[in-house]
Specification:
Chain lengths: 260, 519
């Protein structure tokens, strides 16, 4: 299926000193796709994500975003057109919720009135009450609210691509589940291409269309959850075993409610 | 008389607008310059550990130099710079007063500003700098929109420390000619006017405290993102600056400046000359507490218009002469030599203030000491004290050479404390001044100098080059020439060393004029 590609990695390598963080990875992300990159710490997943908007520069290989080689694009302009959700929010503590959300449109020189309107729209989109949250400082928000503001900020300049670095990892399970579902809806509604990093295979299976598994800087496998389950790689199978075991245990421990 | 009803409080208060205004002006300029240099340096070196280390080390070294020494150092440095610009570009500037004081204080303010600036900028969570980059900020936007605002409270704390240091250290700028609250302290110390000392300490402490609290309010406002608190603090600082600067603004700095060195006699004589000029309808101010070498350079450069110096001092220090001549001959030759530098030696006041070795009368009689020759035989078991410059002056070298003097110990002292020290036996001999009234008060004797190792020290009136043809000035000063004999000056000095209302330089100057004016 030669669908249009949002992001494409070809033979990409990146080392930090003697440590090879990304080792010859090739990976295509189709337009409109929701891809989860799963791996443990030190697997190179975060490095791979940051290479896409040039927060980190690759040593070798080629990365294209919407068909353009990123080396030919001004990194600042590139970052302004790709949304980025940081681990635990990354909100600026000295700016209000509204100023945090409106930062990228402001950098792009959009008029203040247009930004204010956009901020209200986004608060609604991420389901935060406009009146009570708009002027608050990040320190006055709960973890889940902060992450919703982080998502709103990433979407403010109307990007077609959103990169997310373990966006829901630090949240309590209920908030995490709700936020994941809400983002999944946004992804569909806005027609985004989303790339999410997570160490949690269950979250990846539940939210993403496709999963890429990384270990030691290499891409071990990629595909839908079903495709991954027929992988021959022991580590991939091990990762899939955990959600399976959890489901079985939950099924035996929890009486089925509602429909018989 | 009670401490609180002492009229010297009133006299101190009458100088407050002038001293405080100048103190705030020099502190503010120094702080502004210090900030203008160190904040960009902190920003430029924030990601460069090597230059940052060198910079902090340099600033720390500056901090270890005592404040007074740093201020003193800037005077000759600027003199040199001024002579270079004069030779190369034909323009010169004043190395006296405001400029050296401001530069030294600015240098002094740099360490806390640099250190806190660097700490503040480096203490920012790297995730936030990453986030700034991620939302599409350029390095400059990240600095202005994220890093500086986040580092601001820590930077403000550094500015606050610097402000308190500068205000405190500015009291030491008096000897290099910058009027400050230190004028109270230096004058008070020299003339044993404890009311002035106390007033100067209180005023500078209160100023530092007020500035510290107001800057603290701004800092706390920045930390807790309270615009109200920061605004109140800033308004307070602005009000303080306005209240201290406005009363001295628009005051003409024209008119005659009478210089005075750092001891009581000089304070009295400068007040006397100022009064004479004012009586003649000329506008005049006294600039007192100047270092001994500063005053001559200041006169030469025209930063002060007139002062009293001593013939032997200039003979040795300016002409570098080691031969000794009789009083009148020495003054005549000095007059010719000074004229070559365009300085006018208007004439002698009448008395001599020579260095002399001084002992308690009873002690001298018991040891059978009348002359310095007698003293030399006992010197190895005795200790000697002198003022801060005596032991580095050529007269001391000449004395040692002529009489083979070798004392057990030598100490430096505040001039007004020496006499009490020798009277109480804390030291055995002092290098005192012949015109000092305390010699009689403590029953001390001056030892004869049969080998004439010490030159004569006639008090002489000097005029700056630009006043060489100023007949009005000369006429106003004429009544003082040759009128002040040693007995009268001793009595005046004794009065000035008292600790009561009649002992202020202004009061003694009036008394002195009543004595000599009719002669």
């Amino acid at each position: 299926m030669p669908a249009k590609l949002a992001i494409s990695y070809h033979e990409v390598t990146k080392s930090f000193g003697s440590l090879t963080a990304v080792d010859g990875v090739s990976l295509d992300i189709a337009d409109g796709e929701f891809l989860a990159i799963v791996g443990g710490s030190g697997s190179g997943k975060t490095t791979l994500l940051r290479l896409a908007n040039r927060l980190i520069e690759a040593d070798g290989g080629t990365i294209t975003v919407e068909g353009e080689d990123v080396r030919n694009v001004d990194p600042v302009a590139l970052r302004r057109r790709i949304g980025y959700v940081f681990q635990s929010g990354g909100l600026f503590p000295h700016l209000s919720v509204a100023d945090n959300i409106g930062i990228t449109p402001k950098l792009l020189g959009e008029p203040a009135a247009a930004i204010a309107g956009r901020v209200d729209e986004l608060l609604e989109l991420v389901q935060l009450d406009r009146a009570s949250h708009r002027d608050r400082l990040p320190e006055a928000l709960s973890g889940g609210q902060r992450q919703r503001v982080g998502v709103a900020r990433a979407l403010a300049a109307k990007p077609r691509i959103v990169l997310m670095d373990e966006p829901f990892g630090a949240l309590d399970p209920l908030t995490r589940d709700a936020l994941g579902e809400d983002f999944r809806d946004l992804h569909r509604k806005l027609g985004l291409t989303s790339v999410m990093i997570t160490h949690d295979m269950t979250e990846a299976i539940l939210l993403a269309d496709r999963i890429a598994v990384m270990r030691g800087g290499r891409l071990l496998a990629q595909g839908t959850a079903a495709e991954l389950s027929s992988s021959s790689d022991d580590y991939v199978l091990e990762l899939l075993r955990t959600p399976r075991r959890q489901v079985e245990r939950l099924n035996t421990l929890l009486p089925k409610s509602g429909a018989a | 008389m009670s401490l609180f009803t002492d009229p010297r409080w009133g006299e101190a208060l009458s100088h407050l607008a002038d001293y405080l205004g100048n103190h705030v002006r020099v502190s503010l300029a120094a702080l502004a310059l210090g900030l203008a240099v160190s904040l960009p340096l902190a920003i430029l070196t924030r990601n460069r550990p090597a230059p940052r280390g060198i910079l902090l080390a340099l600033a720390s070294i500056v901090q270890t130099v005592p404040g007074l020494a740093l201020l003193a150092l800037f005077y000759p440095l600027l003199l040199l710079a001024a002579s270079v610009t004069l030779a190369w570009f034909g323009v010169s500037f004043s190395a006296f007063g405001f400029l050296p004081a401001m530069l030294a204080l600015a240098l002094y303010s740099m360490l806390p500003v640099l250190r806190n600036g660097i700490t503040g900028l480096n203490g920012i969570d790297p995730a936030l700098i990453e986030a700034a980059k991620g939302v599409g900020m350029t390095a400059r936007q990240s600095l202005v929109m994220v890093e500086l605002p986040l580092a601001l409270p820590v930077m403000m704390a550094g500015i606050r420390t610097a402000a308190v240091w500068v205000i405190g250290t500015a009291t030491l700028s008096t000897p290099i000619g910058q009027t400050s609250l230190g004028n109270y302290i230096f004058a008070g110390l020299q003339t044993q006017n404890w009311v002035f000392v106390l007033f100067g300490c209180l005023a500078s402490a209160l100023l530092a405290l007020a500035v510290d609290q107001l800057l603290g309010l701004i800092e706390s406002g920045l930390r807790h993102r309270s615009r109200l608190r920061s605004g109140l603090g800033a308004a307070g600082i602005a009000a303080l600056v306005a209240a201290t600067l406005v009363p001295t603004m628009g005051r003409s700095s024209s008119g005659y400046v009478v210089g005075a060195k750092t001891f009581a006699e000089q304070y009295v004589l400068s007040a006397l000359m100022r009064d004479r000029l004012q009586a003649a309808g000329l506008s005049a101010t006294a600039r007192s507490g100047l270092g001994s070498s500063v005053i001559f350079e200041a006169l030469k450069a025209g930063d002060i218009d007139l002062c009293v110096d001593y013939s032997g001092t200039l003979w040795a220090n300016q002409l570098h002469r080691t031969d000794i001549k009789p009083r009148a001959e020495l003054v005549a030759e000095l007059k010719t030599e000074l004229a070559k530098q365009n300085i006018t030696l208007l004439g002698e006041l009448g008395f001599e203030n020579a260095y002399a070795l001084v002992m308690p009368r009873k002690r001298a009689e018991a040891l059978g000491i009348r002359t310095i020759t007698d003293l030399a035989a006992h010197a190895s078991t005795l200790s000697i004290a002198g003022d801060y410059e005596f032991f580095s002056r050529p007269e001391w070298a000449a004395l040692q050479k002529a009489y083979g003097l070798q004392f057990r110990a030598q100490r430096q002292m505040q001039p007004d404390f020496m006499y009490a020290a020798v009277a109480s036996g804390e030291v055995d001999v002092i290098a005192g001044y012949t015109s000092d009234g305390l010699i009689a008060k403590y029953d001390l004797v001056t030892l004869d100098d049969p080998k004439h190792a010490i030159p004569p020290y006639d008090a002489i009136l000097l005029l700056a080059p630009k006043r060489a043809g100023d007949e009005q000035l000369k006429t106003a000063l004429q009544p003082l020439l040759g009128k002040i004999d040693i007995a009268t000056m001793r009595e005046a000095n004794l009065r000035a060393s008292g600790n009561d209302a009649n002992s202020s330089p202004d009061a003694v100057a009036k008394w002195l004029w009543e004595k000599v004016g009719k002669r």
